[in-house]
């Protein structure tokens, strides 16, 4: 698919992008190259390719789900202007 400068200006307007008219031809050429690459990639037969999450067949090393820090809620709430039952009280902003 090939784009021209007018189509690039329309796309820029829809995307609310400000581009110089002198750069429109360069953008058109670059975008056309990208679209041609996408067309080439779409032409590749991938029906026998198994979807994968990563190119390497590795497993993620996970750490044990253990509590490593102490509860410091009271310490953190000491500087709060208003606290009730362990919760921060904030001004109402939505009626």
Notes on the structure:
With 95 residues, the protein is mainly alpha-helical. The chain has helices at 5-14, 24-43, 73-77, and strands at 83-84, 87-88. A two-stranded antiparallel sheet has the order 1-2. Strand 1 and strand 2 (87-88) form a beta hairpin.
What is this entry, summarized?
The chain is mainly alpha-helical. The protein has helices at residues 5-14, 24-43, 73-77, and strands at residues 83-84, 87-88.
CATH fold node name of one domain: Histone, subunit A
What is the helix content?
25-40%
User: Helix count, per DSSP?
Assistant: 3
Compute the number of strand runs: 2
Distance between the terminal alpha carbons, to the nearest Å? 52 Å
SSE string, helices as H and strands as E? HHHEE
CATH architecture of one domain: Orthogonal Bundle
Described by strand count, sense and barrel closure, the largest sheet is: 2 strands, antiparallel
Widest β-sheet, arrangement of strands: 1-2
- Reading off the top of the CATH hierarchy, the class of one domain is best stated as Mainly Alpha
Oligomer category: single chain
Radius of gyration: 28 Å
Overall pLDDT confidence: 91
Query: Shape, please?
Result: flat
Question: What secondary-structure arrangement, pairings included, does this model have?
Answer:
Blueprint lengths: L4 H10 L9 H20 L29 H5 L5 E2 L2 E2 L7
Antiparallel strand pairs: 1-2
Supply the key terms:
95 residues, mainly alpha, Histone, subunit A, two-stranded antiparallel ribbon, 3 helices, 2 strands, flat
